[in-house]
Amino acid sequence: MEHFGFEYVKSVPFFMFYSVGSTNRVAKEFLKWGVNPPFCVLAAAQTEGRGRLERKWESPPYGGVYLSHVCSAEFERVQIATLAAAVAVKEVILHFEPNVNLTIRYPNDVLVNNKKISGILAELVGNSIIIGVGLNLHLNAFSEDLLREATALDELGEPPDRYSIVRVLFEQLDKNLRQLASGGGDRIIEEVERSGAVGCMVKVVEMDGKEVHGVAERI
Ligand code: BT5
After folding, report:
1. Which of 69, 8, 6 has its CA nearest to residue 38?
2. N or C: which end of the chain has fewer CB within 10 A?
3. What is the pLDDT of residues 41-70, one digit of tens each?
4. Nearest-CA neighbor of 111 among 155, 157, 49?
5. Is the CB of 49 within 6 Å of ligand 1?
6. What is the DSSP string of 114-154?
7. 3-class SS at 43?
8. Mutate to test the pocket of ligand 1, among 57, 149, 169 (most ligand atoms within 8 A of CB)
9. Per-residue confidence (pLDDT) for residue 205, from 0 to 100
């Protein structure tokens, strides 16, 4: 872990690194060491960034924002925390680029012009939840292979500085998670439904590989 820094954003401690394996994994270590949530782990690069099912999350230096937000999981509907984070990412992008064609692909992807700009990995650890968010900033940092399916904020115009993005992302995440914890889950679900997650053809792949095709009607 290189270049450790520390700061409070709205009274929540931020542990900041230049490079880590995975911010979610560092967050897990911090929980093990007894750090009490809420706290955030932020890195400018990850060498082993992860998606769901151990898929890889490309995280080159300064290519994007890699943030893990850790808070208490002791609320009903914690299972839709991923959606609250997807809505937060949507709000961040629209805050800086109000006119983009943005969709949320259920359950954890945010797309701009049908290309993935952000992914979310939420993990429950005891009574806490770690919500990892990757948001691409500079497309030329990514591999050739990824360019076909991914996009970044700098494709939409001059991206704001990284610190402003982190600040707004944290504020939106914090707001949505608090809302969810106090019974505001319906707003989150409606927002996801409004963001293109329903009314489209979907393919559901079950754990045994069986595929189901159809039109998504509701979350
Ligand atoms: C995700 O998984 O989309 C969740 C990604 C979560 C990343 C954050 S970064 C901070 C925290 N620390 C971590 O280690 N992880 C979290 P999934 O739905 O499984 O999508 C993975 C797929 O997205 C890959 O198989 C690629 O096809 C694609 N992909 C990989 N890197 C990408 C990137 N930077 N931008 C867009 N797509 C990417």
Report:
1. 69
2. N
3. 999 999 999 999 899 999 999 899 999 999
4. 155
5. yes
6. TEEEEEEEEEEETTEEEEEEEEE--GGGS-HHHHTTB--GG
7. strand
8. 57
9. 84
Distance 126 CA to ligand 1 centre (A): 24
| 55 pocket-lining for ligand 1 (C-beta < 6 Å) | yes
Task: Tell me the pLDDT tens digit for each residue of 158-176.
Answer: 888 998 999 999 999 999 9
Handedness of CA 81, 43, 164, 196 (dihedral sign): negative
Residue for token pair 């650890």: 125
**Closest ligand 1 atom to Cα of 59:** 34
Sign of CA dihedral 89, 95, 96, 102: positive
The protein residue with its alpha carbon nearest to ligand 1, atom 30, reads 57
**Overall residue count recorded for the chain in this entry:** 219
Read off φ and ψ for residue 112, nearest 5 degrees.
-125, 130
Reported pTM: 0.94
